[in-house]
Automatic annotation (TrEMBL):
The keyword Acyltransferase applies. Residues 8-172 form the N-acetyltransferase domain. SUPFAM superfamilies: Acyl-CoA N-acyltransferases (Nat). Keywords: Acyltransferase, Transferase. One of its GO terms (molecular function) is acyltransferase activity. Its EC number is 2.3.-.-. PROSITE patterns: GNAT (PS51186). The keyword Transferase applies. It is an enzyme of class 2 (transferase). This is GNAT family N-acetyltransferase.
Amino acid sequence: MFDRNMTYTFRKAELSDIMPIWDILQSAIQRRKNDGSEQWQDGYPNKEIITTDIERGEGFVLLDDEMVIGYTAIIANNEPAYDDIKSEWLTSGDYVVVHRVALSENYLGKGLAKKILGFVEEVAISLGIHSIKADTNFDNIAMLNIFEKLGYVYCGEVFFRGSARKAFEKVL
């Protein structure tokens, strides 16, 4: 659970946030490797992806005071891999996609990934969208548990860069 005495804010990322975001992602990539995961071990995500997220207004940061401690991308209605799901989504209308959820090493285990996904829900609602779609690697146990705890429903598999990923949807 996150420290309720702490005040966390969520905002669109700025280009000046790239270095702290990249540091967080590099740690997350290494953490996935140390856990024996195949996720994020193929050069993705990288600085170019993060820069593109920010330039498109799709990159978001979680802040503790003014310090960047988390990152995610929120993309509205644009994930071509989701068109070819092996099974089917709960809904067929507008949706937001959440990708690249990562937290600073010093903030792990405080429930902040759930807090980020709560902010994603607020962004979706502000856009008039009532569906969040996401995916993760079959061996990302932490994220699979978070999706389950937050009411995401397993919908099947999608494919990214040649490998299957578990796909989830939450209807708001």
